[in-house]
Amino acid sequence: MADKRDYYEVLGLSKGASDDQIKKAYRKLSKQYHPDINKEAGAEDKFKEVSEAYEILSDPQKKAAYNQYGHAGTDPSYGYGQGGRFGGFSGFGGGGSAGFDFDDILGSFFGGGGGFGSQSRVNPNAPRQGNDLSYRVNLEFEEAIFGTEKEVEYAREDNCGTCHGTGAKPGTSPVTCSKCHGQGRINVERQTPLGRMVTQQVCDVCHGSGNEIKDKCVTCHGDGHVSQTHKIKVNVPAGVDDGQQMRLTGSGEAGRNGGPYGDLYVVFSVKPSEKFQRDGADIYFEMPINFAQAALGDEIDIPTVHGDVKLKVPAGTQTGTKFRLRGKGAPRLRGNGVGDQTVITKVVTPQSMNHEQKEALRAFAKATGTSVNEPDDSLFGKVFGKKKK
User: Fold this and answer.
1) pLDDT at 285 over 90
2) Quick one: which of 51, 254, 317, 383 has the most CB atoms within 10 Å?
3) Which of 311, 307, 304 is nearest to 283 (CA)?
């Protein structure tokens, strides 16, 4: 449990975040790290970490326990208020002024010293990386096949150009918080039926930063960050597919305390083609041919993403026959070569014919010894006209 990150930190929030802020942060991060979208190493672990943080912070009772006791408050093995390891202290203090310090006992299990384990040892002034962002880029089918360059524009939290991220008025600097002395957290004492209890909470003066800004920057009002529009060119690789993403390091939001920028995850949304179906690097095309072409054979033009090519259709071709055009598919990402295009034939039955066409088919039926009945009320009769008398 000691190596777990703070749940608010996992979601990129400060303690005291509202339910809406928690939900919004979870939606963004869960989409960013979802294993079905993000194929990078470690994405699944981050997704699980984000889901665990949201499970705790979205539940009012679990959130309250976590805010008061940290990770121990949500671990059933420590049993707060359930008669577990720390439950039922009827013999300590008895509600009087004996000075029972619950924090001292917790300290013996979590490293001691005015805090709750790893949380108390977090340096609020340590550099922190900025939040990651996600941006969806829409691509035409051919753009995804051959690659392209796109300029994207999005809003992000950037370092304030006036104070350069310090939050302080130019010519001044933040000072160590006078209330928490740079710890970012303060001890709060209260009298309970168990005696005097000491808990920790985020400092209400510096809001956990450990620094106090006496003269705030007039541009960012002491935050150190401002929302700005950012533009960047994205080189879309040839062969990218719908739902895939790429990471642009350092194109996310600005960090805190001199920390690095977060990353930008570009998610590609590819518009379907009216002609082709795609499965990875392979492309599929359904080619309609008429009865004569299928029966006698033909050489026809086949469209591909690389241009039209000639295809010889042998005599006697049936509906559903497949022909492979090697190297006429999409480039393979992270690999060599190009996929193939599969052509699937579909023999089309005419829905309307003129007199000569009908007579030709009747002659064909007669030559094959086939007796064709053409009742007026049948589908065949509607196609070929009235039955001959």
Assistant:
1) yes
2) 254
3) 304
Reported CATH class of domain 131-172+215-272: mainly beta
pLDDT above 80: residue 33? yes
Architecture per CATH, 1-88: Orthogonal Bundle (1.10)
Nearest to 352 by CA among 319, 375, 382, 388: 382
Q: Lowest-pLDDT range, 34-43, 256-265, 313-322, 341-350?
A: 34-43
Helices (H), ranges, the chain: 7-10, 19-33, 43-57, 60-69, 102-110, 141-146, 291-296, 355-367, 379-384
Q: CA 50 to CA 7: how far, in whole Å? A: 8
Binning pLDDT at 50, 70 and 90, where does residue 237 land? Answer: very high
Tokens 């005291």 belong to residue: 16
Q: What residue spans in the chain does CATH classification 2.60.260.20 cover?
A: 131-172+215-272, 276-347
Here the tokens at position 371 are 């007796």
Could you tell me where the DSSP H helices lie in 37-182? 43-57, 60-69, 102-110, 141-146
Domain with CATH 1.10.287.110 in the chain: 1-88
Domain 276-347: CATH superfamily is: Urease metallochaperone UreE, N-terminal domain (2.60.260.20)
| Span 79-93, pLDDT tens digits | 443 333 344 333 334
Nearest to 106 by CA among 243, 199, 6, 3: 199
Mean pLDDT of 294-310: 95
Angstrom distances, CA of residue 370 to CA of 55, 233, 349: 72, 66, 18
Residues 6+ apart with CB under 8 A from 142: 305
Measured CA to CA, the distance from residue 226 to residue 205 in angstroms comes to: 21
Question: Strands 264-270 and 133-139, how do they pair?
Answer: parallel
